[in-house]
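User: I'm writing a tutorial on reading structure tokens. Could you give me a worked example: one chain, its sequence, then its tokens, then a sentence or two explaining what the tokens reveal?
Assistant: Sure. Here is the example chain.
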Amino acid sequence: MKISLDQFDKAFENRIRLQIMSVLVANDHYDFNSLKELLDVTDGNLASHLKALEKEEYILVNKSFIGRKPNTQYSASVKGRGAFKKHLEALENLIKQQKI
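And here are its predicted structure tokens:
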């Protein structure tokens, strides 16, 4: 049986982006430093993956200050939650197809 890959979202092909969305869907929001620590990635690596998700409009960015320090919070958008759910359903379907 041929498996269609059309249902998979290219934005989630990278494990870091998949992890970011997993964290943001499971939580109301997460800040940059907490994400960096949780995922054990560099500033630049995390920033590039967040930018890719932001470009797809899958995440929302809220920049503020805590005292004098900048703080950037990220949350999953409605569009991002829907795309992530659809991607997970495609993965589940793929697994079900492989069962004998």
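What the tokens reveal: The chain has one domain: 10-95. DSSP finds four helices and three strands in the chain.
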